[in-house]
Amino acid sequence: MYRLLAGYFIFSPTKPTTVWQATTESAAPCPYRKLKTADRDRESADTLCPMSDLCRLIWCALIGLFRPRAALETENLVLRHQLNVLRRKSPKRLAFSNVDRLVFAGLHRLAPGVLDALKILKPQTVIRWHRAEFRAYWRWKSRPRGGRPKTRADIRQLIRDMSVANPLWGAPRIHGELLKLGIDIGQTTVAKYMARRRRPPSQGWKTFLRNHADGIAAMDLFVVPTISFRLLYGLLILRHDRRRILWLGATTHPTAEWIALQLIEACGWKQAPHYLVHDRDRSYGEVFLRRVHAMGIRDRPTSPQSPWQNGYAERLIGSIRRECIDHVVVLGERHLRHVLLSYQQYYNETRTHLSLDKDAPIHALSRPLAAYLAAPSWEDCIINMCGSNLRQGQGPLDPPLLSSERG
Prior knowledge:
Layout: H1 2-10, H2 19-26, H3 37-46, H4 50-64, H5 69-89, H6 98-110, H7 123-141, H8 153-165, H9 171-180, H10 187-193, H11 205-212, E1 216-225, E2 231-239, E3 244-251, H12 256-267, E4 275-278, H13 286-294, E5 298-301, H14 311-323, H15 333-349, H16 369-373
Parallel strand pairs: 1-4, 4-5
Antiparallel strand pairs: 1-2, 2-3
C-alpha cells in the first residue's frame, strides 16, 4: 500500500507511467469512427439514469458493512487514483444532476469530513448545495396550508394608488378610509401593500402653489383707446383658484377711492381673499391700502418692473385684447363697461382653460343644462358701434347692465 502511494506521488501526473494508464490511453476509441454494437451498448450503459447509480451506491454501502477493513481501504485508494486519472482527462466543469447533488449534500450532513476527499468538485459547492437543500426543506415545511385569504388585486392596487396620491398618509389613515368604503382588511395588510419611498414625502412646487391658489387674488389696470382718441382705464380682479373674473370695471380717472370701491363691489358678501397681488402703480394710494387692510386682506405688491410676478392677470389682459377689444371700436366709458361685462360672462361660464382640464371657471356640473346652453358664445361678445348684439339682434344697451356705474 505504501509503495503504491509513493509511486503515485513520485511520477508526474502528465505522463502515463503505469501499464493500466497506457492500456487505457491505447484503448481509447477514435471519435470519428462509426460505433459498433458493443460500443453502443457500452455507451448506453454509461448513460444510465441517475436513479440506478443511486441504487448501486446504496447496494455497495450495504455490502461494505460485511467486508474487512483492509479491503475497504485498498478499494478507497484505487478509487481515489482512478478519480485522479479521470480528473486529468475530464473537462473542467462537470454537469451534476439533482440526485448527485442530493447524495453529496446528504453525505456531507452525515460526515462533514468527506469534504477532504472531494476531487471532481470544490467543497464550497457541496456546502452551497447543502444550504440550498436546507432552504428548500423549510420552504416546503412552512408552505401555506389555508389560513388568511389573499387580498384581491384591485384592493392592492387601490392601496398603492392611495399611498402614491397622498404621500403624507400612513397605514392607519389609509386603513380608516378603506373602512369607510366598506373594505374590511387589516392595518398590517395595508402597510404591506403601500408604496415604498426612499426619502421622506415632500410636495412639489406645483402642489404647493395649487394649495395656496384659492386664497390669492390679482388685480391690474389696462388702457383702452376710444373712437375719439381718448384713453379709458379698465380694472381687472381675478381669483387664482379657478381663474374666475371677480370684477371688470372701466373709468377715465382711476383714483385710489374708485379702486377701493371696485374691490368692495367685487368681494361683496363673499369671503375676501387672503392675499392680493398687484403692481406698484400710483393709483393704489393710501385710501386703497387702508380699505384692503380693513377687509382683512394682506397686500402683496410685485417688485418694480416685474410684470411676470403677476402673470395670471397679465395673461388675462392679453386674452381680453385678442378676443374682445381688438374686434370692437369703443365709443365711450359706458360702451366699454358693457363690452367688459359681456366678456366676463362669456369667460366665466363658457370659455375653456387648459389648466382646468378644458373646463370653464364656473364648473359646468354646478349649473343646469338649460343655463349652460344659454351661456354666451364668443360671437356674443362682439358688439357693433350702435351697441346692439350682432348674433341675438338686441336693441340698445340694456339699462340693468349699466346699474353698476359708480364712481
